[in-house]
Specification:
Elements (H helix, E strand, L loop, with lengths): L6 H51 L1 E4 L2 E4 L6 E6 L4 E6 L2 E2 L4 E2 L3 E5 L4 E3 L11 E7 L4 E6 L5 E5 L3
Antiparallel strand pairs: 1-2, 3-4, 3-8, 4-5, 4-6, 7-9, 9-10, 10-11
Length: 156
């Protein structure tokens, strides 16, 4: 009686594993692409909401200390579509670090600077910030005519 595996058995095992992998890899890539797009959209949306709330209260926290700011040094979000990044600034000085979006190939915005007034209304009266992932999925944060915004996945 022969012990061990024959070459033909090994070839069939490798072939079966290869077929299973070829079926699962695209599904995994789709899931990770959707997750990355959702993460970046929710992060941008959350930062916009925080900026809006900070503008309403007139106070922001930097290194844990609350500090009032005046109108001439109001907070804003500067968007950089070419670099797929954004940052919060006070006047022209950055507050925190620049957020570079991962797995985003295209990023468009109606303006490069979003500012909220003391009532929480943005300077963007219409349009949308659109993010496009590596696999072509898009998500939008839509601004309406009165400066409100909402966000989420545009395609399912």
């Amino acid at each position: 009686m022969q012990k061990g595996l024959a070459t033909l058995e090994i070839v069939f095992a490798v072939l079966i594993i290869g077929l299973l992998m070829s079926a699962t890899i695209p599904a995994v890539q789709n899931v990770t692409d959707r997750a990355a797009l959702d993460y970046e959209t929710k992060n941008l949306y959350s930062d916009l909401r925080r900026l809006q709330a900070t503008s309403r209260s007139g106070t922001f926290r930097n290194n844990g200390m609350g500090r009032k700011f005046s109108v001439d040094e109001s907070l804003a979000m500067e968007l950089s579509p070419a670099a797929a990044s954004y940052k919060i600034v006070r006047g022209i000085e950055p507050v925190g670090q620049t957020h570079h979006m991962q797995n985003i190939t295209n990023f468009t915005a109606p303006t490069e600077r979003i500012v909220f007034d003391s009532n929480g209304k943005s300077n963007v009266n219409s349009g949308a910030v659109t993010l496009t992932s590596e696999r072509g999925r898009t998500s939008k944060i839509v601004f309406d005519s009165v400066g409100r915004f909402r966000g989420g996945r545009a395609d399912e």
